[in-house]
C-alpha cells in the first residue's frame, strides 16, 4: 500500500508529560501553553448569539453587509486604513482555517508558482498550510535574505505582526513594498493588532491595498475564539478571487456568530480593558519566571513571553517550570527550527491562577497585579 501524507503529531498534544508533572502540585496545572483566551466576551456579544432569525437560512460566505461594514469601520477607526466593505472585505471561519487553506487556493490561481514564504519563528500553521497544499514551505529570517529564486516561485509571503510567539513588531510597509516589487501577494496576519504596546495598532493596509491582504480575528480581540470568526481585507482582486473559491468550498461563518461579531467590532472599551489585563498578567509572570531562574522581558506586542532556555534546552526549562510553578509552557521548537532554544508562556490564565503560581515560588500576594 502506498503511503501518502502522514499528519505529524499536533504540537500541543506532545505536552502530556509536562501537564502530568504540573498536575501533581496542589491546585493542579496552570496551562499557559496554548494562546486560548480565558476571559469572557462582552455580555452584549454573548446575548447577540441568541438573537432570533439567524439560524434558519444559510449565512453569506463573504459575511453579511453589516459584518463587513463593521469590519471596515474598525479598520479605519483603530488601524488608520480605509477599505470598501462591498469589495475589499470578506469573512472567514476563524483565521486559522484561512491560513491553512489559502496556499491551495493561491496555487489554483497561479499554478506556475509553488512556494510559501513564512517567518522562520512563527505560528506553525503557515508551514502546514503549504504542506497541505503540496507546495514548498520556505522560512525566512529577514526579507533581504530571501533568495530571488524562491521569490520568483512564491505564491505568497506571510508576515505576522505582532508576532506569535516573539511579540516582535514588523515594518509592514517594507513587507508590502517587497511583495509589490516582485509581484508576490503579501498576507499579513494581524490577529494581535490590538495588543501592540511599543507603538499604536497598525495594519499593512496603511501602505495601500495593492497586492496585500490583512487577516484579522475576533478570537484574541474579543475573547471569541470558540465562535470561530475572522475576516480578511485588502486588494480587491485578491479578495474577490478568494471570496468566490471559498464559496464553493462551503466556508461560511454561522449566522448567529456573524451577528455577534458585528456587535463586538462596534465596541473598543472592552478591548482596552483586555489589553491592560494582558500587560499586568505578563508583568506578574515575569516575576514568577525570574524566581525560578528563567528571566523574561516584556514583549512589544501580543500576550506571550518569549524567553531563552538555560543551556538552550527548552524541554528541560519547560519541565522545571512545571515542577516549580505548575505552569505548562510551550517549547520553542513548536514554532520552527530556528527557535529550539526558547520557550513561550501565554498570559492566558486568570489573576487567581497566576497568583497560585506566584505563591508556589514564595512571591508575596498581589505585588504587581
Care to give the gist of this entry?
The chain has 369 residues and is α/β, with parallel strands linked by helices. Helix content is 38%, strand content 14%.
CATH class of the largest domain: Alpha Beta
User: How large is the share of residues in beta strands?
Assistant: 5-15%
- Could you name the CATH topology of the largest domain? Aspartate Aminotransferase, domain 2
Named at the architecture level, the CATH assignment of the largest domain is 3-Layer(aba) Sandwich
Element pattern in H and E: HEHHEHEHEHEHEEHEHHHEHEEEH
The largest sheet, given as strand count, sense and whether it forms a barrel, is:
7 strands, mixed
> What is the topology, as strand order, of the major beta sheet?
2-8-7-6-5-3-4
Key traits:
369 residues; alpha/beta; Aspartate Aminotransferase, domain 1; Aspartate Aminotransferase, domain 2; 2 domains; three-stranded antiparallel beta sheet; 13 helices; 12 strands; 38% helix
Amino acid at each position: 500500500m502506498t503511503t501518502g501524507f502522514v499528519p505529524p503529531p499536533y504540537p500541543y498534544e506532545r505536552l502530556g508529560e509536562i501537564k502530568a508533572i504540573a498536575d501533581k502540585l496542589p491546585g493542579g496545572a496552570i496551562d499557559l501553553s496554548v494562546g486560548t483566551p480565558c476571559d469572557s466576551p462582552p455580555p452584549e456579544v454573548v446575548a447577540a448569539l441568541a438573537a432570533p432569525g439567524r439560524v434558519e437560512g444559510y449565512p453569506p460566505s463573504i459575511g453579511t453587509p453589516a459584518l463587513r461594514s463593521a469590519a471596515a469601520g474598525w479598520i479605519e477607526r483603530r488601524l488608520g486604513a480605509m477599505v470598501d466593505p462591498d469589495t475589499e472585505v470578506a469573512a472567514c471561519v476563524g483565521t486559522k482555517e484561512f491560513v491553512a487553506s489559502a496556499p491551495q487556493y493561491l496555487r489554483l490561481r497561479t499554478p506556475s508558482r509553488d512556494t510559501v514564504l513564512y517567518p522562520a519563528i512563527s505560528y506553525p500553521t503557515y508551514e502546514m498550510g503549504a504542506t497541505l497544499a503540496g507546495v514548498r514551505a520556505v522560512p525566512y529570517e529577514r526579507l533581504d535574505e530571501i533568495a530571488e529564486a524562491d521569490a520568483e516561485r512564491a505564491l505568497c509571503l506571510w508576515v505576522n505582526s505582532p508576532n506569535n510567539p516573539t511579540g516582535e513588531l514588523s515594518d509592514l510597509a517594507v513587507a508590502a513594498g517587497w511583495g509589490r516589487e516582485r509581484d508576490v501577494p503579501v498576507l499579513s496576519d494581524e490577529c494581535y493588532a490590538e495588543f501592540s504596546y511599543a507603538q499604536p495598532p497598525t495594519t499593512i493596509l496603511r501602505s495601500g491595498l495593492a497586492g496585500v491582504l490583512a487577516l484579522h480575528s475576533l478570537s484574541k480581540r474579543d475573547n471569541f475564539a470558540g465562535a470561530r470568526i475572522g475576516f480578511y481585507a485588502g486588494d480587491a482582486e485578491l479578495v474577490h478571487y478568494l471570496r468566490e473559491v471559498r464559496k464553493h468550498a462551503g466556508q461560511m461563518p454561522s449566522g448567529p456568530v456573524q451577528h455577534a461579531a458585528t456587535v463586538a467590532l462596534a465596541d473598543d472599551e472592552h478591548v482596552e480593558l483586555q489589553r491592560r489585563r494582558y500587560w499586568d498578567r505578563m508583568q506578574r509572570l515575569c516575576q514568577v519566571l525570574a524566581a525560578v531562574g528563567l528571566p523574561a522581558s516584556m514583549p512589544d506586542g501580543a500576550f506571550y513571553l518569549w524567553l531563552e532556555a538555560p543551556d538552550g534546552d527548552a524541554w528541560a526549562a519547560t519541565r522545571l517550570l512545571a515542577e516549580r510553578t505548575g505552569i505548562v509552557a510551550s517549547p520553542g521548537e513548536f514554532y520552527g527550527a530556528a527557535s529550539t532554544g526558547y520557550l513561550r508562556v501565554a498570559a492566558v490564565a486568570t489573576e487567581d491562577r497566576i497568583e497560585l503560581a506566584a505563591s508556589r515560588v514564595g512571591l508575596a500576594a498581589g505585588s504587581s497585579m
